[in-house]
Amino acid sequence: MKYLLFIIIYSILWCISVLPFSVLYFLSNIVYFLVYKVIKYRVKTVRYNLALTFPHLSDIERKNIEKDFYQHLCDLFLEMIKTITISKEELDKRFVFKNVELIKAYEQKEKSIILMLPHYGNWEWVISLGKHLDFKGFGVYKALKNKYFDKLFRDIRSRFNAELVNTHQTAGVIRENQSKKLYGVYLFLSDQTPLLRENLHWEPFMGVEVPIHMGAEVLARKLNMNILYLKVDKVKRGHYEATFSEITDDIKNEPKYKPTRVFLDKVEAQIKEAPAYYFWTHKRWKHKDEKDHFKTK
Description:
10 helices; about 45% helix; about 20% strand; globular
């Protein structure tokens, strides 16, 4: 039954993916009306998040961000589907890396690289980075429960010289690669909410103290990896520019938590610059009042 459902859904997605971008964005406008105006998908969550993180803005200003966000969200959804069949040439035109020379310089240091980025802009199209690398590109992700969709997800990303690594296998994969002198660039989307447990680290994010994912920094320290940040800007509909910047190239001498703080500062600056392109439907701040129950020891 799961396989039959996969075949039906995949057939629909494939048909959508071959549509030209002009038709996709016309379709996105229809989806926007349905998702935002009719279904009202997570509208309460988005409004809560915006009110919490932008209390200085007026209701009208936050409402404008909200509308722009939902239009972007629907564009992003269609762009993700388009990834199934998009050509490398088309993707290169629509997702441009501005300063590839920085990551090339980091490759010369002969250390694997952690590339940290938030759920901002179109993070899915970062898979086109592979053609610019001498290192192997790896994306750290959480496996889908449906094995057929999980395979589809991995196959789509592997089209552009990127390989997906399950979060639970990441440390082992990196260790094995490094034992073989196989250096890699590992993409971590590190801005979302971790599962609540003891000994979590908490940091202010957009003015609110929340639990923080520490996996990227912990792995970098254990395996002596360098860390870069990737800032993805939406230039216009369907077009993005990505810029690299340094977080650390000397992890052994960095104070504990500093690389993670630098990452959060960069994410905050990006959100404040153009807030509509952040992933506001996620309940990022839902644990903000629970620190006392989960204190870091």
